[in-house]
Amino acid sequence: MRFLLFLLLLAAAPLRAQEPSAADYRADARSIERLIADVYAYRERFPGNAVPMSDRLRREAEAVADRRALLRYAERALLALADHHAITGASFPDSWAVVPSFSDLWIERSGGEFVITSVRSGSPAALAGVRPGDVLQAIGEVPAAEAIAAFWRDLGLEPDDGRAAFAARVLAAGRRNALRRLTVRRAAALIPLDLPSLYSLPRAERPPVNVERDGRRLRIRFNDSLGETATIAAFDAAMAGARPGQPILLDLTDTPSGGNTTVARAILGWFVDRPRFYQVHNMPAEERRTGVARQWVEQVLPRPGKFHRGRVTVEVGRWTGSMGEGLAIGFDAVGADVAGTRMAGLLGAIYDHRLEHSGLVLKLPTERLAHVNGTPREDFVPRSTRPRR
User: Fold this and answer.
1) How would you class 223 by CB atoms within 10 Å of its CB: exposed for 0-12, middle for 13-18, buried for 19 or more?
2) What pLDDT digit, counting tens, does each position of 15-46 carry?
């Protein structure tokens, strides 16, 4: 009787998840190219709308036999997109730093050189004296142009201007667990730099927002907190302290990690007295799958008992990313002043896509996002270079 009971209990027990086989991991690696082709919202960036893939990367996919090799391959396959918003849900200690969240230099290619156009405030690079206008001369002991060409050669792909600038930013941000050895040029002077990875810095405890009086204005600075639910209460408390009609300056220059629309709509909701459109969404994957296009416009609604009538200015920069950029175009749509430089230009809204056998998550831009006037979010340019007083 006891033996029979044991068998019944054994039969009823949930089966333990089996470790995927080498063939399963390989199948997941092979599936990545097709997944990107199906769901990536910005395929038109590539010649012939074809996912960038090389023979070298395809050979690497065929050699995948375990989870570690799959993750390494997935990281490399996503690098081929030259898209800072396309990342894996897991990483290695020596993975490349995520740009812009863990970078401090914004670099563009200009006249065959790699020019630093923005330096993150308070960062190791800023503290070392790096300034906009400096040129990235070398990475380690290798001239910058050679290091960038080698980055793409390692993936079996050729660099163009966009890919080259992407690689320059990634290489300058460095490996997560390694010191960055860079050389910058200022006029005729070469300046060697040893900079820590931003991953190695102790994480400072900061409130979701800082509030200060800036002349007549109330300045509210977001501390990379647009993804935190606590930001809503902190912002509400800051706004409750505003005088009627007081000019408000919202500082989004340190929001590289983005956030979510709940927090964004809570912020915008203080400045509308009726439903207003603030962002256009488009889902290319549905049209590819069904032949029927899908697009919708998102609204922000007033928040009962929370409305501020007064001029609002939004300050942005290269470390305004993703949902920070969404807030900027939303505020522009409702008539606020948006000032500063170009933003991070992160593409679309990312969705998590889980590979069938391993469960590894790829975070891919799956929705295209635009201003209500049709301007793609990544192309939005502030109206002025500095906030009005």
Assistant:
1) middle
2) 446 899 999 999 999 999 999 999 999 999 99
In angstroms, how far is the first alpha carbon of the chain from the final one?
85
Look at residue 147 and give its three-state secondary structure: helix
If you count DSSP H runs as helices and E runs as strands, how many of each does the chain have, helices first? 11, 16
Q: Are the C-beta atoms of 248 and 312 separated by less than 8 Å?
A: yes
Q: Provide the 10 A C-beta neighbour count for residue 30.
A: 14
Residue with tokens 């408390």: 237
Contacts of 105 (CB under 8 A, 6+ apart): 116, 118, 119, 120, 125, 130, 136, 169, 172, 173
pTM (predicted TM-score): 0.91
Q: Looking up tokens 């690689």, which residue turns up?
A: 167
- In angstroms, what CA-CA distances link 178 with 1, 174, 203, 258? 63, 7, 17, 25
To which H or E segment does residue 181 belong? strand 180-186
Q: Report whether pLDDT(387) > 90.
A: no
Q: At 263, which helix (H) or strand (E)?
A: helix 261-268
CATH of 209-281+289-348+368-379, one of 3.30.565.10, 3.10.180.10, 3.30.230.10, 3.90.226.10: 3.90.226.10
Reading the block at residue 107, the tokens are 């670099």
Neighbours of 152 (CB within 10 A): 20
Place of tokens 């390694």: 178
Across 112-129, average pLDDT: 97
Q: Of the candidates 211, 210, 209, 215, which has an alpha carbon nearest to the alpha carbon of residue 247?
A: 215
Tokens of 4: 């029979």
User: Which residues make beta-bridge pairs with 192?
Assistant: 183
Tell how far CA 252 is from the center of its chain.
Answer: 14
CATH superfamily of 105-200: PDZ domain (2.30.42.10)
Helix (H) or strand (E) holding 316: strand 312-316
Query: Coil, helix or strand for 355?
Result: coil
Residue with tokens 């927002």: 209
Are 225 and 288 in contact by the 8 Å Cβ rule? The answer is no
